[in-house]
Design a protein that fits this description.
alpha/beta; 14 helices; Gyrase A, domain 2; Rossmann fold; six-stranded mixed sheet; Four Helix Bundle (Hemerythrin (Met), subunit A)
Length: 429
């Protein structure tokens, strides 16, 4: 069989130029040769050295800090190099052009450095997904959840479940091996208890808040009749003028949604059309219908209408406390005035506390839809094993559970899925 030579890739891995410093990464079997071609010298591993970068014709391109990382103990599992250049566009273009003329080198594709790290066993699939989430994180909770997966906490937990399945499978195999034609061997004491304990752990993991909720944000819908102060409060909570405010009834005719971070917690705040039995016209009625649909989707509704008239479990908001016709509500309601800021800070704090109880805890990893699907497969197999009395069928269910765990962390996966995942990364990562 002919072994195909692995190409050496390069890309700018820092932010878009211009910048004070830019980092060019090189990974692959020709990384060392590329350094030699650019600098005319070799470098001590893992030690920063100052060097002049030159083109093939000897033209000085830049003076850069150079780092050399021989594989396999590198980020990608391959020989790697980093060029910390001056971050001007012309400098990066010149150095990249010089790299392109070196035999065996080519520009990297999206996420190709991370894909090589996965292919070479430096990270598993859950860690790669965590890294993609980390790059997209916009709030502190999103960052903390992503870093937990990058740090391998989910992978370690899945690994412990997989080891438990292997131990249980070994017990089943031993019982089958020691059986004769007329009698099946007995399972050791504690087998059923161990299986039930694993079932409970998987059920608990599946009941935890999902990563999608962390990305979308805790959904808060402001609702009430026309002219109840929804849009004014919406603007105060989002620190914007996204919603038009007016004393004219029916000003808000459609759903207005804004993603915001409050104290590091992601929210989706939704302003809606004023609710009344009949809209003033067809367009307003469409807005009212959409507002009612939003009430169903909400994680929490802030009700600014008459007390007790809102959806079940909605928070009562006594808005416009500065107004001469202010209508107070019973104790427990949030009294606010978006005009002078009364109660806004307290309402934001209460929203953060409520959202934190529904979102993944800081520092805990969160399962995405793909991971949940694989974990559900493993859970279903463990449940089926608990209900079986035939040891052959018990062993088959345990094998199915192990395969689901393998797919979760990437021991068994498909190229299409990998293309989709690593396509989320920028070039140079």
């Amino acid at each position: 069989m002919v072994k195909h030579e692995i190409s050496t890739i390069y890309a700018v891995s820092s932010g878009s130029p211009p910048a004070a410093i830019a980092v060019l990464r090189i990974s692959g079997p020709q990384a060392g040769a590329a350094l030699q071609a650019l600098t005319g010298r070799s470098f001590e591993p893992r030690r920063a050295s100052l060097a002049r970068l030159r083109s093939q014709s000897g033209e000085l391109l830049d003076e850069a800090l150079v780092l050399w990382f021989p594989g396999p103990a590198t980020a990608t599992g391959e020989d790697c190099a980093e060029l910390h250049c001056h971050g001007g566009r012309a400098v990066l273009a010149a150095v990249s052009d010089a790299l392109s003329k070196i035999e065996g080198l080519r520009p990297a594709g999206e996420g190709e450095f991370t894909r090589r790290a996965f292919a070479n066993g430096r990270i598993d699939l859950a860690e790669a997904e965590g890294l993609a989430d980390l790059l997209e994180a916009e709030t502190e909770l999103q960052r903390a959840a992503a870093i937990a997966n990058v740090d391998g906490r989910l992978s370690a937990k899945v690994g412990s479940w997989r080891e438990a399945v292997l131990r249980l499978s070994a017990q089943v195999e031993a019982a089958l091996d020691f059986s004769d034609e007329d009698d099946v061997g007995e399972l050791p004491a504690g087998f059923t208890e161990g299986l039930a304990e694993l079932d409970g752990e998987l059920e608990q993991a599946l009941s935890a808040p999902r990563a999608e909720k962390l990305k979308e944000g805790f959904r808060v819908v402001l609702a009430g009749p026309p002219n109840s102060g929804k849009s004014t409060l919406f603007n105060a909570l989002t620190d914007s003028e996204a919603a038009i405010t007016s004393p004219i009834a029916g000003t808000t005719r459609d759903v207005i949604e804004r993603s915001v971070a409050i104290m590091g917690v992601p929210f989706s705040l939704v302003d809606t059309a004023g609710l009344r039995d009949q809209g003033g016209e067809e367009i307003e009625q469409i807005g009212i219908d959409r507002a009612r649909s939003e009430l169903v989707r909400a994680d929490l509704v802030l009700w600014l209408g008459p007390e007790g008239a809102g959806p079940r479990d909605a928070w009562e908001i006594a808005a416009r406390s500065d107004s001469p016709d202010f209508a107070p509500k019973a104790s427990g309601a949030h009294v606010v005035s978006a005009a002078n800021g009364v109660g806004i800070a307290d309402l934001k704090l209460a929203l953060v506390v409520e959202a934190r109880s529904a979102l993944p805890k800081a520092g805990e990893g969160a399962l995405n839809a793909r991971q949940v699907a694989r974990l559900e497969e493993a859970h279903a197999a463990i449940r089926a094993a608990l209900e079986q009395s035939d040891l052959l069928l018990v062993g088959e269910e345990l094998r199915s559970a192990r395969l689901a765990f393998d797919r979760l962390i990437g021991r068994a996966t498909t190229e299409d899925m990998l293309d989709t995942l690593f396509g989320r990364f920028c070039i140079g990562k």
